[in-house]
Amino acid sequence: MIKLVALDMDGTLLDSNKRAPEDFADWVKNHENIMTVLASGRQYHTLERQFGDLKGNALFVAENGAIVYRGDDVIYENSMDPDSVGPTLDTILKIKGAIPIMCGIESAYIAQASKEAMTESAKYYARLKFVEDLHEYVRKDRFLKIAVFFAGRDAEEAYNSLPKLPDGVSALLSGDRWIDVANDSIGKGEAISKIRAKYDLKKEECMAFGDYLNDMTMIEECGESYAMKNAHPDIKAAAKYVTEYDNDNDGVMRVLRTVR
After folding, report:
1. What pLDDT score does 153 carry?
2. Per-residue pLDDT at 192
3. In whole angstroms, what is the distance from residue 234 CA to residue 172 CA?
4. Could you tell me if 147 and 80 are in contact, meaning their C-beta atoms sit under 8 angstroms apart?
5. In Å, how far are 152, 215, 221 from 188, measured between CA atoms?
6. Which of 93, 190, 208, 227 could lock onto 236 through a cystine, CB 3.0 to 4.6 A?
7. What is the pTM of this model?
C-alpha cells in the first residue's frame, strides 16, 4: 500500500507553462491516507505561492531537500556553514557565465545581472532581493544553497568542469540552465529519508516521480519510482518505471488516478 507520494515540480508535475494538473489539488485532498510531498529545487515561498491551499495536506521539500516544511513548521533543515558561504560564492564567481543566486531562508539574493537571469530567477524565487554586492549578505541569512544560472543552457558543460569547491560543499546539476551548490548531504532523497524515519514509512510504501538528475536520490529512496517520459536518460535508467506520457500530457496524474 502506498503511504507517501513524492513529486518533483518542473518537468514532472508541472507542464511547460508551470501549471499543475487541474485535478491535482483535489486528488491530494481526497487521499488523506497518502502523504503528498512536493519536492523541488524551488524556494519554499514559491511553492507556498502556488500550492498554499495544500499547506494543511502536503509536506513541502524546498531547495532540493535542504529544508522541509509541514504547514508553517520546519521539520528538517540543512543550511550551509556560514564560514563556507563566502568562499563558495567566490569560487562560483570565477566560473564563466555563472550567475549566482544565494538562497536563504528569509529570501533569495541576486546581484544585478542580465534581464534574462533576473526574469528566470523570479520564476523560482517568490522572495528575491536585488542587491549591489552578494558578499554583504553572506551572514545576514541562513543559506540553504547557492543556485547558479547559465543563460546559454550549458549548465551541464560547466558542471563537468567545475573548480574545486570548499570542503563539505558539492554541486548538483538541476536543469539545463541550473547548478545548485550546497552541503554534501543535501538531496531530495535525504529529505525523503528523514520524512520516512519521522513517520515510520517503509521504502516500498513510498512512490516518487522525477525527471532530472537532482531527482536521482529521491528516485532511489522510494520503492515505487517513476521517471517521466521526458526525463534525463540517467533517471529513466534508475527508476522502476517510466511514465507513458510526459509532463505536458498529464503523465503524473495518469498514474496517480490509479492509486487508491
Report:
1. 74
2. 98
3. 14
4. no
5. 26, 7, 9
6. 227
7. 0.89
Average pLDDT across each block of 10 residues of the chain; the chain has 260 residues. List them in order: 97 96 97 96 93 96 96 95 95 92 96 81 90 94 95 85 92 88 94 97 98 95 98 97 98 94
C-alpha 38/C-alpha 108 separation (Å) is 20
Q: What type of residue is 134?
A: L
- Whose grid coordinates read 518533483? 8
- Dihedral over alpha carbons 108, 136, 115, 13 (to 10 degrees): -20
pLDDT score, position 208: 98
- Distance from chain centroid for Cα 116: 21
- How far separated are the first and last CA of the chain, in Å rounded? 8
Q: Which residues pair with 225 in a beta bridge?
A: 208
Q: Which three cell numbers stand for residue 40?
A: 523541488
Cell of 181: 551548490
The DSSP symbol for 55 reads T
The count of residues in the chain is 260
What cell numbers appear for 151 in the block? Answer: 543563460
Which residue in the block uniquely carries the three cell numbers 551572514?
A: 139
Tell me if 9 sits within 8 A of 42, measured CB to CB: yes
